[in-house]
Amino acid sequence: MRAQVAAHPNTPADLLGQLAAEFPAEVLSNPALPLLRLAHPNLLKDWPDAALLALLKLPSAPDWLRYHAAKSSPVEVQVALATHPHLTPAEITQLAQHPAWLVRARIAARTDLTAELLDTLAHDPDYGVRLAVASRQDLPAQSVETLRRDPSRFVRQVLEQTQRARLTAFLLMLCLFPA
């Protein structure tokens, strides 16, 4: 019944905000939502963070929602945004420069980064971001060399373990599927 209320076009905006955490797909598909956004440009600012987090978890989260999350939401929402599977290259670049290290670390963990952006993140001032980069098995050689000289021993250890696991996986594949 509550899901039907979330999808109903006569549901008030504040109630949609309350229902979005539990029924995000229904709220996004509500036919009145575009009109509510026009009538109330700051509509999402009045909604609870849990609603925005639930909406951002949907792969179908629209551009306007991601734009709002990037511009005016708490860090927790921006961390969730950084993990969204359909970010544009511009959104990724913007979030890679975010002041909160956790947002940059979530960007560093994405599989769709360019070698240039990985190298930039490998030089990040926060070791947590460099740690996220070091834990990737698909690092370009330039980033590997940068992280081998990292001032944090922990980052260097994670890089070594990740590179060793990558080599082990490669050798295993050679044994299982000889040429």
Automatic annotation (TrEMBL):
SUPFAM superfamilies from the UniProt entry:
ARM repeat
Pfam families attached to this UniProt entry = LRV
Name the Gene3D superfamilies for this protein: Leucine-rich Repeat Variant
Question: What InterPro entries does UniProt report for this protein, alphabetically?
Answer: ARM-like, ARM-type_fold, LRR_variant
Query: Its domain of life?
Result: Bacteria
What is the protein name given in its UniProt record? Leucine rich repeat variant
